[in-house]
Amino acid sequence: MIKVLFFASLRDKLGVSELAVSIDQLTAISHETSVEVLVKHLSSQNAQWGDILNSDASLLIAINQTMVESNTVIHDGDEVALFPPVTGG
């Protein structure tokens, strides 16, 4: 299982702070299990989630507490954290 964590406004918009995704659910979409495939899977589960996750191409991503790019491969047992872009002033 992959543990997916959502933070800040992303968590508020989706209405969930974490969920678990089976690696098998990702390999059913593509033989490559990248963060992009994970986001595609999550987006396909709920139209509203798709709008939210795809509305901002600059999502910040961490796998096992290390910042990564969206094409990074995910492995069974990984923790994937998704953050909205950092803003402030």
Automatic annotation (TrEMBL):
Annotated keywords: Molybdenum cofactor biosynthesis, Nucleotide-binding
Family matches, as InterPro entries: Beta-grasp_dom_sf, MOCS2A, Mopterin_synth/thiamin_S_b, ThiS/MoaD-like
Coiled-coil residue windows: none
Pfam families: ThiS
Signal peptide coordinates: none
Source superkingdom: Bacteria
One GO location term (cellular component): molybdopterin adenylyltransferase complex
Keyword Transcription regulation: no
Pathway(s) where this gene product acts: Cofactor biosynthesis; molybdopterin biosynthesis
BP terms from Gene Ontology: Mo-molybdopterin cofactor biosynthetic process
Bilayer-crossing regions: none
GO molecular function: nucleotide binding
Family from the record: Belongs to the MoaD family.
Protein name: Molybdopterin synthase sulfur carrier subunit
Organism of this sequence: Marinibactrum halimedae
Gene: moaD
